[in-house]
Amino acid sequence: MSRIQDDEVGDGTTSVTVLAAELLQEAEKLIDQKIHPQIIRAGWRRSAQIGRNVLNRTLADNCDNESKCHEDLLNIARTTLGSKILSQHKEYFAKLAVSVVLRLKRSGNLSAIQIIKMTGRTLEDSFLDEASSRIRSLGSTTLKE
Fold first, then answer.
1. Which of 12, 25, 85, 124 is the most exposed place for a label (fewest CB within 10 A)?
2. How many CB atoms lie within 10 A of CB 117?
3. CATH 2.40.50.1020 assigned to 66-139
4. Alpha helices of 36-123 — where are they, by DSSP H?
5. C-alpha span between 129 and 136 (Å, rounded)
6. Are 121 and 138 in contact (CB under 8 A)?
7. CB contact at 8 A, 111 and 133
8. In what order do the strands lie in the sheet with 114-121?
9. Which residue has the higher pLDDT, 46 or 5?
10. Contact 68/75 with Cβ under 8 angstroms?
């Protein structure tokens, strides 16, 4: 499970494993109460659907307002970058990532983003090459692309 999470998202392996363990622990209690596993599974699916519905009702697309859109993108980037490798450089790389994404102008063409890894300096020496729209990552720590 942890490997699948890491392959799909690149992080959150501990969180997904702990959540799965908690769900299984609670399921075990329900099975001890003679509740059939299919009923438990149906409850999980219903809970997931209710969660999706709540998220969909509360979602807001602020991209008509440039400053709100920029702040939303920064918040998304900060959350994503709160991982083990970049947590101490989160603010710097959040701003860098948002700058790159805004250059895409809603094309969604993520393959247009190129990260060039260079060794010998620190992560905070990384920068957006304005001429080529490439991130030059100068740190010796490798980033998952």
1. 25
2. 15
3. no
4. 37-58, 66-80, 90-103
5. 7
6. yes
7. no
8. 114-121, 134-139, 127-129
9. 46
10. no
Nearest to 71 by CA among 88, 95, 55: 95
What pLDDT does 64 receive? 85
State the pTM of this model: 0.57
Q: Which long-range contacts (CB under 8 A, 24 or more apart) does 11-16 make?
A: 11/83, 11/84
Query: What pLDDT score does 142 carry?
Result: 46
pLDDT at 141 over 50: no
What is the token pair recorded at 132? Answer: 């080529």
Instruction: Enter the DSSP assignment of 10.
Output: S
- Summarize pLDDT for 22-51 with one digit per residue, the tens: 999 999 999 999 999 999 999 999 999 999
Q: Are 122 and 139 in contact (CB under 8 A)?
A: yes
